[in-house]
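Dear H.,

Thanks for agreeing to be a second pair of eyes. The structure we're designing against is below in token form, covering all 216 positions.
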């Protein structure tokens, strides 16, 4: 199933089809990464923005099947939606994934749910707005993973920078495949004070204890 979708995506890229006609699926290693984030969580509620034909949804749904949970995938292109339904059905994952048919900018605010993980993989110009909409559905401890932050660094470099400068979040660019910005919503925004400074400087809290500090 996954191999077929990978071949489909590769053939569309090789044929130079316009983006709107391609599945634009994540790389298999990104699929494994997404699986690894959700599979250890109990009752993991996942919001996916940009489901396309279901490749990343299948990785996420296979992950939540491990300890329980659900993937809600938002997609607005009718041709992708039909394929999403067929592929998720064929993968036997219908009990772990649902599709919201519509524009995420309208659909996400209307969802009455709280999520543990958000996978953001829609149009790059919309990431800021979509993050803001998704953020309203997140509690401390939630994760947001945004794809393409390195492949589209000219557009999404600012997205990463804003997340990394936000004291209520901890965010890091993971250089896997097309680049993933992995952002954690903090339990307590002041927790950033206990993190080492960028560039490896000492933690703020450590330097204020007056203990002199020891290594190891
Ligand atoms: C990069 S593809 C997603 C690939 C998918 N995550 C995968 O790995 O299989 C982006 C998808 O987002 C959808 N999309 C873009 N903007 C959207 C929006 N505002 N609401 C819903 N879907 C959107 C597009 O139709 C497209 O199918």
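And this is the sequence the design step returned. I haven't edited it by hand at all.
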């Amino acid at each position: 199933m996954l191999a077929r979708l990978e071949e489909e995506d590769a053939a569309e890229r090789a044929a130079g089809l316009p983006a709107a006609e391609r599945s634009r699926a994540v790389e298999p290693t990104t699929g494994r990464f997404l699986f690894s984030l959700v599979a250890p969580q109990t009752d993991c509620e996942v919001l996916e923005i940009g489901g396309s034909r279901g490749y990343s949804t299948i990785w996420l749904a296979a992950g939540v099947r491990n300890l329980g949970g659900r993937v809600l995938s938002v997609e607005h292109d009718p041709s992708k939606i039909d394929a999403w339904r067929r592929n998720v059905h064929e993968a036997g994952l219908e009990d772990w994934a649902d599709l919201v048919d519509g524009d995420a900018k309208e659909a996400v605010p209307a969802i009455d749910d709280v999520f543990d993980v958000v996978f953001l993989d829609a149009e790059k110009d919309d990431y800021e707005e979509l993050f803001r909409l998704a953020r309203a559905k997140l509690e401390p401890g939630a994760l947001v993973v945004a794809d393409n932050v390195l492949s589209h660094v000219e557009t999404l470099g600012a997205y990463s920078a804003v997340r990394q400068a936000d004291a209520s979040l901890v965010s890091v660019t993971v250089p896997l495949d097309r680049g993933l910005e992995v952002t954690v919503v903090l339990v307590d925004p002041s927790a950033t004070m206990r993190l080492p400074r960028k560039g490896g400087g000492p933690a703020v809290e450590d330097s204020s204890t007056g203990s002199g500090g020891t290594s190891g």
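Two observations from my side: Residues 201-216 have pLDDT under 50 and may be disordered. The two ends are 47 Å apart (CA to CA).

Warmly,
E.
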